[in-house]
User: Fold these one by one.
Assistant:
Number 1:
Amino acid sequence: MTRSVCVVGAGAAGVAATYALRDARAEVTVLEKSRGVCGRAATRRRDGRRYDHGASHLPVADERVAAFVDEFGADGLIDIEAPVWTVDETGAVNETDSDPTRRVAWESGMTQLAKRALAATEAAVERETRVMAMDRDERGWRLTDDDGGSHGPFDVLLLTPPAPQTASLLAATGWASERAIRLREAVGSVEYDGAHSVILGYDRPLDREWFGLRAATEDGSLQWIGRESVKAGHIPDSGEILVVQMGDAWARAHEGEFESESEAIADEVAALVADRLNEPWLADPAWTDDQRWRYARPASPPPAAALDAGEDDGLYFAGDWVAGEGRVDAAIRSGIEVAERIRP
């Protein structure tokens, strides 16, 4: 029997689940609030340049993630061979790759992860569709979007937005079940650290051996400095783009300034980077960009097995928050694992 499945969210977890269901007896509909896909694995373009301003790459340390990536072939795939080193608040660099796993990206940007996965399915993808409420009756799950549109009924509902947004949907449900309350409490217990990406563009190259510098501790202001020039196809001419990810404490301290003081914030970050790398010219980028990520890193997963309570009613969950790791590979694993439980 073919089952109808609705996946809310076209981030890494949602597209991985959709892809894993491609040869199952399932008709899949994906509802995505944005115009784009792949969530924080996001790519922007500027003057012929590309840069991944969210997830900088995909770590491939799991067999399921490796199979997922390799299904799409080598065309446009980048195996990043340059290392990731660590740096402390004094600028001291440890030239040892603490996690020397395979790292990949795409010449056209990290969004290719979702675009290629969805293209390999027959799923119906409805973009710019923000789900506001959900309900369940004897025919299945029904959803309402912010334009008043109705979707369903579906036999199975998979929720993949960040935990606070998923908890809001559970709070807006007319689902008459005590399990709804338990699930909302479990999902609502997940806390997040935020982040802020600042992109610094330069008209001259930065000669370094590393692909990225990762902060030695989680409380550091500069959590990540990544060189987009390492990725083929991202910077066609001579130059450099640094994607700098600031930590949660820094982002909170600057909350409220992001809209009105973005240029001043970029100047501050560029000065920090120049000091950290001991390269004074980095304090004066040719151009800048930025993005606030409110739900960047889940601090902890929900209580063990708490999310299983909805499965008898066809309600499932996936995302990096389910795994308790703010990594795109964790989101992919979560999507694949939940698809295995959904498969009829």
Number 2:
Amino acid sequence: MIFDREDNGNMHNGIQLDFERPIIELEKKISDMKDFSMGENIELQHEIESLQKKLDHLRDEIYSNLTRWQKVQLSRHPRRPYTLDYIKLISTDFIELHGDRYFADDKAVVGGFGRIDGRPVMFVGQQKGRDTKQKLERNFGMAHPEGYRKARRLFYLAEKFNIPIVILIDTPGAYPGIGAEERGQAEAIARNIWVMFQIKVPIVVVIIGEGASGGALGIGIGDKVVMLEYAWYSVISPEGCAAILWRDAANAPLAAEALKLTAPDLMELGIIDKILPEPPNGAHRDHAAAAHTVKKEILATLDELSKENVENLLKKRLEKYRRMGEYREL
């Protein structure tokens, strides 16, 4: 099944993760029974309710016991809503802005002005593609230096007009190609981090899918960082970690456990500020519900941050990141 660029909604047919199959099969059985009941005018309400209770129990059992690797798989689900899906669902009057004014327009990074319930914001985020053509066009959501420089240009533009920034993170990492390195990939990411500590407007960061390494952190400094329930955020991907430690990417599930990259892990470590619950079975099953949760959190956070004066805002932003991690002097 091929999707339009900004397709959204309830999209779960055709693609299943292994642990999803029992749930999807039972859902289909319930749907078939309802159709049969209506078509043949036979009363099957008791049987349908019994299956629904079984489905609810099965869903709770599976999703309350997901491994870290299974959550990583959910974050990569091809039906999961991407940045432009969220922007379309939570905002109006979105105007996308292009180019870094130095080299090119990196389509792995999108951004522009929009309104959330009438409140102007600057959106910045990584964008993946649905089909092969879109994936290549968006470079699988992996930004080049010009992508980070475009984001930086939009940060400054938001500051100029005193408009808060909303960042949506979803990337398997910054692009590691030779051309990207030649054009200063590390410098672009480092400068963005430095700049974001100085931008004088509120910054809300929402991790909606994958959050890998400097690729995520290059647009990931904010006053408040929230994370969807089945997203992940780490210094390296499980496959990358496994390739380094065991020289075999097949050990990615083991690496995922060691990295502690899920939302509960990061909440415990003080890396994120809040976990946003996803619809039953994940955001890919109900884009609208996931977007409603994200929208509600963004508006509440902006209301909170708008009460801070600029000096306190910047001071608290810096202190937030200085508190992270531990070290011992020997």
Number 3:
Amino acid sequence: MKTVPDLCRRRAELTPDAIAFAELATSRSWTFADVDDHAERAATLFEAMGLGEGERVAVLCHNTAIFFEILFACAKARLILVPLNWRQTATELAPILADSGARLLLADGATAELAAALATDQVPLLQFADYEARRDATAPRTRPGTPWETDRPWYLLYTSGTTGKPKAVIQTAGMALSNAVNVQQATGASAADHVLNFLPLFHTAGINLHSLPVFIAGGTSHIIPKFDADAVITLVAEAKLSLFFGVPAIYQAISLHPAFATTDFSAVRHWGCGGAPLPESLIRAFLERGVVVCNGMGMTETGPTVFFMDRANALAKIGSVGKPQLMAEVRLVDLEDRDVPQGASGEILFRGPGITPGYFGNPDATAKAFAPGGWLRSGDVGRQDEDGYYFIVDRIKDMFISGGENVYPAEVEIVLHAHPAVLEAAVLGVADARWGEVGHAVVMPRPGATIDVEALRAYARERLAAYKVPKHITLVQDFPRTAAGKVQKHVLRAIVADEAKS
């Protein structure tokens, strides 16, 4: 498809009076007709401010329905939205803002101080309160409903993942529609569904898991400014949600909540998880509460949904991310890009309409990201079992070689997570004079638990070959994380290196 209809307008035509967004903090709600009307007025406002096709608009905000109307306004006005990470400092954000070439910065009250530090004569600041007043005073466009090109950049997501320097991943309407199909296939999302929007909106999960797919389907997104375990438990207990998606850190926080053991979780018919592997100990903790968590896997570059575990086989295939969904192709290849046999490990390659066209303004990074034939390199090692289910082995870059043997940290982390005193663990390969590299495990104890390092190492040795057992173990109270809840191993590496020097 070269174009798709204006998805916001078409949804408003289908179910104008249904509730699209409901904010718990403000008690405000937006019907689909409201969202489309606001987006049309905002598009006119942006055009009146002199913003032309392809120009960038940055936004800095906690979770709010206003973000989504601005997102749709940018599609209507053929602008490109750039969500910014409110957890970062002005020093970190300034080069990202400059790289994007944004000509306007929108911000909510919670980020006002940070936004003011970023604003310049070239990038003026428009606070949400002023934006809403000016939007309401603006008439809707006289030419609504223009189709959206499927491959035109719609918004940019700056991602450094766990490695460092940010790159702007292009997101398109074609990717959004493909992701909606994949999410619907995996979860059965429909107009009857209610989801919770709390994952940060500068991350693909905040937009696409599952708020945008559910918007397209005609369902409702309840919005809280950011994650709050009390709010989640309350909404679940009150049967306000039917679909839920979180990252492992979210499931961990829910499992530690005092009401976890007594909450009725049955109203939520599908629980999804992604962003990082969900430890088996957590999977089983939720199983004891009657919750089957379905792991999935994708990337910002894949829109993001590619894999999703089906509920029927989740217990039989613990650790699997499921099968590729309808709009995705997957290959596993060796170092020479040759397909590997079933059961063997290989790099996961992706192709399909949900794949990004590349990195904005960065042709070199785009070229490096793709293999011949338009296949996106994931950087992840995976394997497929005899039933067609996929398992993620580890990140290619995280593998290390100890005494000539390949060690995948994820395999070691699975063993450490199974220890009753361990809440979370991350394993790094560090230099060693004798073996070349050895494992260094950074471990977070469960609340109230005490870990004996030597006993933990002996526990691992009973379950792993000697060369896989971490030589070093460091205990911590928390991990540095990305917005998706992934452990930032490059930051951990710097921390353990500093410890080694002291």
Number 4:
Amino acid sequence: MRNLKTEKYLKIIFLISLISIISAYFIEYVLGHQPCNLCLIERIPYGLAIILIVLNYVFQKNEYFIILLLILIFAFSFIVSFYHFGIEQAFFEESTVCGLKDLSEVISKEEILKQLKLKTISCKDVTFKIFGFSLTTINIIISLSILFMLIKIFTNYDRFKN
């Protein structure tokens, strides 16, 4: 028998993750706001959550383990978002992650000079806000909400089974 309460929570997390990914790509490609490297990293947990939840429904095995993985993924999401927020608010210095480009395409010194001429998006620059909040701030709220939901599922898993 399927765990109905857990299934409901996982559907909510799936939906939030899907909306988050679609929104991020909409803001980037339709509205034209370029993300920094940390913004790109902050998308990874949502993509992983979508994949894990789909795998959970396809195989219907190891749900408890998948929930534990999701807790770790969204803990990572919260930490990265909090660090990014700290950079935006000047609590932390920008790390090298903020300035890295894709160096696999850089072959010659001409290519290096082209890369240097391109404007890189700084992790401390907020280019898009919703209701006065940066996307990083919103990501902190979403990550914490999902993390608490997952911890509730994990700690009450046996009770939710019945």
